[in-house]
Design goal:
The complex is a heterotetramer, with two copies of chain A (90 residues) and two copies of chain B (153 residues). With 90 residues, chain A is α+β, with helices and mostly antiparallel strands. Chain A has a single domain, classed as Beta-grasp domain (Ubiquitin-like (UB roll), Roll), CATH 3.10.20. Chain A has three helices and five strands; from the N terminus they run βαβααβββ. In chain A, 29% of the residues are buried. Chain B is of the alpha+beta class and 153 residues long. Helix content of chain B is 37%, strand content 35%. Chain B is built from four helices and eight strands; from the N terminus they run E-H-E-E-H-E-E-E-H-E-E-H. Chain B has helices at 13-21, 53-70, 101-118, 140-151; strands at 2-7, 29-36, 44-51, 73-81, 83-85, 90-98, 121-127, 132-135. In chain B, strands 1-4-6-2 form a four-stranded mixed β-sheet, sandwiched between helices. In chain B, strands 5-3-7-8 form a four-stranded antiparallel β-sheet, with no helix packed on it. Chain B is globular.
Chain lengths: 90, 153, 153, 90
């Protein structure tokens, strides 16, 4: 029997948040999503706002459980996935 | 000794330096860096700083700990503000205290360079006429500044 | 804007930074360096700083002006104390303000490196038991720190 | 007719001041003294205290009218000549 899919918390920041229109949501990712890159592709297909937000997905940064991840990193069992543009703090 | 704060409120440099060095006679050098909001030729009314609460402090701590392992640093204090910040106001403070000036300077600069590229803060500009001037874009120069620490001695 | 002071009295960093940046919205970066008197493992009761009055301010100004020509620095304040200074007390303050952080850091560090080798101050150490522990010797490391600015970009 | 010798103010600092026993003095340099190095040699011959102070004259620094000078620099018409050990400010 397959494990129940993990519920993940997705967080969106800055112009990505503005484009998708939500700050956070809980989702179960489909089995086809294993890397950060897969996730961004899947998000892009979730409607017009998401297509707009993830149009240039190569610049988008992702953090898994509050650690920076590369696009080819595996999502694994990360519970909190944050998606944001390049940072401009300091 | 490491203190990291992410807050809306302003801060006072003298108070923070005193808190870090109080009662100690082994510190010979304190380097500080303060980032201020620029007015961009009177066109900007404010910056709105968005942040990712848990991760912001965590990333700043990671950078500070790396600096403290790399150089003989006796204490660091880092404060980063979020929310609305007007021209001339303070945004960020990094203090590095050490026996020696090179470690203090290097430590403060290293943390600032990592803050720019790795700490989850985003700046939106608000114009004097009230309109939204969009999100500040990340600078390639900041990526280069961060990279130089990989090659430096 | 350049302010150089050679004085017996202590100074307050926040006050000096505020004086330098007050009413300005073009400054995005302020780097400061504070040199403190170390206790050398509780053996030192005080430093006695002798100086050459006219030349001290003149040499500091020369170093600051060179920094302000080399980098886009909008303002500097440099304060160097003389007389008796006890462990934990402040000796020197260098503030560099700029649009950009690299210029602020480089400017403050450059002036500190030149101060160490070129500003006419001499430190005598006084021990806890009241005896004279002699004059602090100049460090080769300080000469090297000064020289690196001749080769750096 | 030769010019009257210039009166120079000599200033001593730190351990040089302590060794020579004076803070400052006014002197007319002999005609044989033209460089900083000549001056240090001449000072060394002015008695026991001076011999002690200028024993290792290669480390000694000299400023002419408040500007740093090298040992082979000409003294010229400098009116204020300061003599001191390597500096330890900052």
């Amino acid at each position: 029997m397959a494990d129940a899919p993990i519920e993940r918390k997705l967080l969106y920041f800055a112009w990505i948040r503005e484009r998708v229109g939500i700050e956070q949501e809980y989702v179960a990712l489909p089995g086809s999503v294993s890397t950060v890159s897969d996730l961004l592709d899947w998000l892009k297909g979730r409607g017009e706002e998401f297509a707009h937000a993830f149009e240039f997905s190569n610049v988008i940064r992702v953090a898994l459980d509050q650690d920076h991840a590369d696009h080819d990193d595996l999502i694994g069992d990360a519970r909190e996935i944050a998606i944001f543009p390049p940072m401009t703090g300091g | 000794m490491l203190k990291v704060r992410v807050q809306e409120d302003d801060f006072d440099t003298t108070t923070e330096v005193a808190a870090l060095t109080h009662g100690r006679t082994d510190i010979g050098a304190v380097a500080t860096f303060t980032g201020l909001c620029r007015g961009e030729g009177e066109t900007l009314s404010a910056l709105e700083l968005e942040h990712y609460p848990g991760m912001a402090a965590k990333q700043i701590e990671t950078a500070a700990k790396a600096a403290m392992e790399r150089w003989p640093i006796d204490g660091m204090t880092i404060i980063h503000r979020h929310g609305r910040i007007e021209p001339g106001e303070q945004i960020v403070l990094v203090i590095a205290a050490s026996r020696h000036r090179d470690a203090a300077f290097d430590g403060a600069r290293y943390v600032m360079d990592f803050l720019k590229t790795d700490a989850p803060f985003w700046k939106k500009e608000r114009r004097v006429d009230g309109t939204d001037a969009g999100w500040v874009e990340a600078k390639e120069a900041d990526d280069k500044a961060r990279e130089r620490w990989s090659n430096a001695p």
